[in-house]
Amino acid sequence: MRTVAGLVDLPIAVCFTLEGDHARKLASASELARDGGLEEVVPARRLRLERARIVTHVGRGPAAPEVALFAAGTTPLAVATLPIMAGETQLATVLLADVRTRPDLAEARRSAALDDLRALVEGVLQPPAGEPITASHPIAPTPRPPIDLRHHSGSQRRRVGSSQRAPRPDPVTGLPDRAFVHLETERRIERAAVMGQGLALAIVSLDRFRRVNDSLGHALGDVLLRQVAQRLLSSIDDGDLAGRRSGDEFIVLLDDVRAGVSALQRSDRIQQAIREPFHLDAHEIVLTAGIGVARYPDDAPDAATLLRYADIALHQAKNEGPGRLKLFDASMQQTARERLDLEHQLREAMRSGQLSLHYQPKYSIATRQLVGAEALLRWKHPQRGMISPGRFIPVAEDSGLIVPIGTWALNEVARQCKRWSDAGLEYGRVSVNVSGLQFVRHDFVGTVKRAVRAASIPPERLELELTETIVMGEVEQAIVRLSALRSLGVRVSVDDFGTGYSSLAYLQKLPVDVLKIDRSFVQELDREGLPAEQARSLAQAITFLGHQLGLDVLAEGVETPTQLEQLANVGCDEVQGYLFGKPMPPDAFERHVRES
């Protein structure tokens, strides 16, 4: 596979192709780009954590890159790929990009500019005799092994034989690779247009598949992917096509789809097949999958748009939780545009100081004395005013911005603790929320240590809040990180406890200090009937469990005296909520403490 990065006015950091859970570097534009800290092979998830502009699906064809990283601070408004051909063989792809709108880029393949580009890159494609191929010269294309038809159903074997080119099999599942599926999508759309038929494209994304790799190892993870591939083949109709996209994602082309209900019914059949238990050695694995579906011609007029709309539908399905199925509609595109606009504004908010922290007090039930506060992120937009965390936090998570935002919040909390200590304020300890993306970073503990040392505060003043889902997601790694934090002297609380799927066997091993009862339980405490009884029983059970493990128990979202009384009756230790104080800016919190 060969790729040449062609420059217009914009520096390109590096181009990658996705190979399962990893991404392989294909080409880079400069020494600066190659020395930017990205290895030849990196975990695919790392790409979205890089401080660079990422453009995915920038090309098509066997020599096209799948991901391009552009220099941080730049936004490419025009991206196009041009194939460099030798007869019927594609030697390479020239990637063009510009920070300006350039409709002429898409027209370049039909102009004399292509001949000029071929001349420009000829020396790279064919290095001078005797000169070794280095990092600045893309590697030669590798031969494509024939697909092993034993991995495919009869209908899929027939489809392989009738395709314009033989598919290159995915090395793990044996399914056709994404490049072949994309080409086949274009071919089938052309056929559907002639025959007056419709088709649908479904993207199938396994939920929480990474936990299988982390707990059972990548070898068994690959076995599971092969079993999923077989389930896909057994659940689709003759004439349909299944391929592997990357990692834990698959693409399915559903032929002869005339209405949305047909696409949904056939996609639901796939979902139900995946829900059936899988067996790996002595392990029984239950999976769910999110599926996004888009249709031709109802939703999209061409293959590229069809794929993009299916991606948007998948994103919506994933946002609603595991095991969801979504059919694209126009409102999703508007939502996607709004999220992208909000992401751009959030980046500006980070640069211009629009983000701040408010502090909500925590109190002891027994003594009614202040024991600390929770730092909560706030965004005051210059035109739109206060933007709800429920709107911008998910965008920050999806875009990876939550990592730099979280690091800033951690350091700001440490600095605020120092200011209050210097002012003689008895504020207890301050907790700050930690995202899953932050927690899994290899340097997270070092980031916490540097924040504490830079602010010159006792580590006991700081508490980190992690959701139950985060700490139970990768338990063994979580135990290592949490133990390091405890050695540092920092307290850790498990937020939203009771809403996830904690294993008691693992919970007793976690070096944490506090369990937080989720506000959804607390809100039921002052209602009548069965809901209140169930909420009281849950609060009592969580409190008992916490105390048996030697942990403090805190309830959040306490708003009424009745809720407080019920929590006191079950033995809860601490509370926070509007009954004691709303989140407030640092100066208002200081006044609150001095007056209480």
Topology of helices and strands:
Elements: E1 4-5, E2 12-19, E3 22-27, H1 31-34, E4 41-43, H2 44-47, E5 53-56, E6 67-70, E7 78-86, E8 89-98, H3 103-107, H4 113-125, H5 154-162, H6 178-195, E9 199-206, H7 210-216, H8 218-235, E10 241-246, E11 249-254, H9 260-275, E12 278-280, E13 283-285, E14 289-296, H10 303-319, E15 325-327, H11 330-352, E16 355-364, E17 370-381, E18 385-387, H12 389-399, H13 402-422, E19 429-433, H14 436-439, H15 444-455, E20 462-467, H16 468-473, H17 475-488, E21 491-497, H18 504-507, E22 514-517, H19 519-522, H20 530-548, E23 552-556, H21 561-569, E24 574-576, H22 586-595
Parallel strand pairs: 1-8, 14-15, 17-19, 19-20, 20-21, 21-22, 22-23, 23-24
Antiparallel strand pairs: 2-3, 2-6, 3-4, 5-6, 7-8, 9-11, 9-14, 10-11, 12-13, 16-17, 16-24, 17-18
Observed structural traits:
596 residues; alpha/beta; five-stranded antiparallel β-sheet; 22 helices; 24 strands; 42% helix; 23% strand; globular; disordered N terminus
Q: How many strands in all?
A: 24
Strand order of the largest sheet: 16-17-19-20-21-22-23-24
Helical/strand content category: alpha/beta
Q: Report strand %.
A: 15-25%
Spans where pLDDT lies below 50 across 5 or more residues: 1-13, 29-36, 121-164
Mean pLDDT: 79
Q: Cα-atom Rg, whole angstroms?
A: 27 Å
Number of helices: 22
Major β-sheet, in short? 8 strands, mixed, barrel
Give the helix level as a range of percent.
Answer: 40-55%
* Alpha-carbon distance between the two ends: 68 Å
- Anisotropy-based shape: globular
